[in-house]
């Protein structure tokens, strides 16, 4: 008794796979019909049918059609073991890349929520807080009070690409002198941002680990000096001594919106130890 054969239409219905896909699989040598008659009709046997779920499973697991072909027609365990091992390594790299992207988006999302809260509740009072210590990627640059150039920092972006790293979280600018920043005499800055990938210690700088006076500035950077002066007056009134360093932490800026009214910048001034 001859083995039962199935036309391509029947295979399509049984295995839920398109005729076009079956023809393509035949074309690349992945799954060929057991018979093609003189009229060009394709027929498949049970062995063909049972191969289709295997192909689907491998596809679900991320294997390419060429990889699936090698696995299905391999003659020993070593080829299958190597194929699976290589795929695990590949998927680990993809997983790492996705985790980096997820972290970056989560951090940005957190900044959006922070800015929304600051604007909604009009949080602009000066407060004292501890600035948590962190390692940051950095680049020292000249400064001319051009905020767009400093925040959307092409030179820094190119530098990050050059050292094959990635960044997340807010852009932070460190100014060497609080008073010079107010007086618009500041000529040098250090741009800081959190690294996503590991890197050598010489590429990192310490940020935080001390008390700061902090206040949010809402709106355009053109009048940010008003918030600086508010902080200075508050410090003098409450008899706080401040150090040279100050920071601008860009919560929402040119990266997120073109509406200046929605800009939120946290200004932080390092305090001297009492």
Give structural attributes.
single chain, about 270 residues, alpha+beta, Multidrug-efflux Transporter Regulator, Chain: A, Domain 2, 2 domains, 8-stranded antiparallel sheet, 9 helices
Number of strands: 11
What percentage of the residues does DSSP assign to strands (E)? 25-35%
Question: Which CATH architecture of the largest domain would you pick?
Answer: Alpha-Beta Barrel
pLDDT below 50 for ≥5 consecutive residues: which ranges? none
Helix residue percentage:
40-55%
Give the domain tally: 2
In which order are the strands of the major sheet placed? 4-9-11-10-6-7-5-8
What is the radius of gyration? Answer: 31 Å
The CATH topology annotation of the largest domain reads as: Multidrug-efflux Transporter 1 Regulator Bmrr, Chain A
Order of helices and strands: EHHEEHHHEEHHEHEEEHEE
The biggest beta sheet reads: 8 strands, antiparallel
Rough outline: elongated
The CATH class name of the largest domain reads Alpha Beta
Q: Which assembly state applies to the chains in this document?
A: single chain
Distance between the termini: 98 Å
Nearest-integer average pLDDT = 96
Name of the CATH superfamily of the largest domain: Regulatory factor, effector binding domain
């Amino acid at each position: 008794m001859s083995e039962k054969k199935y036309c391509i239409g029947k295979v399509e219905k049984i295995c839920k796979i398109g005729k076009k896909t079956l023809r393509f699989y035949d074309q690349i040598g992945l799954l060929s019909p057991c018979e093609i008659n003189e009229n060009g009709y394709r027929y498949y046997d049970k062995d063909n049918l049972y191969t289709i779920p295997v192909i689907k499973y491998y596809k679900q697991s991320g294997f390419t059609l060429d990889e699936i072909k090698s696995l299905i027609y391999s003659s020993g365990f070593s080829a299958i073991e190597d194929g699976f091992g290589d795929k695990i390594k590949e998927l680990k790299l993809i997983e790492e890349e996705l985790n980096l992207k997820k972290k970056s988006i989560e951090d940005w999302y957190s900044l959006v929520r922070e800015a929304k809260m600051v604007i909604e509740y009009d949080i602009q009072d000066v407060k004292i807080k501890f600035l948590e210590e962190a390692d940051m990627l950095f680049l020292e640059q000249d400064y001319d009070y051009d905020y767009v150039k400093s925040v959307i920092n092409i030179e820094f972006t190119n530098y990050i690409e050059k050292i094959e790293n990635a960044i997340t979280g807010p852009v932070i600018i460190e100014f060497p002198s609080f008073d010079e920043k107010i007086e618009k005499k500041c000529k040098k800055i250090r741009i800081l941002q959190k690294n996503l990938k590991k890197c050598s210690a010489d590429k990192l700088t310490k940020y935080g680990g001390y008390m700061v006076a902090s206040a949010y500035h809402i709106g355009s950077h053109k009048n940010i000096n008003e918030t600086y002066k508010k902080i200075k007056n508050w410090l003098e009134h409450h008899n706080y001594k401040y150090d040279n360093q100050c920071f601008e932490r860009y919560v929402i800026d040119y990266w997120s919106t073109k509406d200046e009214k929605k800009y939120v910048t946290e200004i932080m001034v390092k305090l001297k130890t009492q």
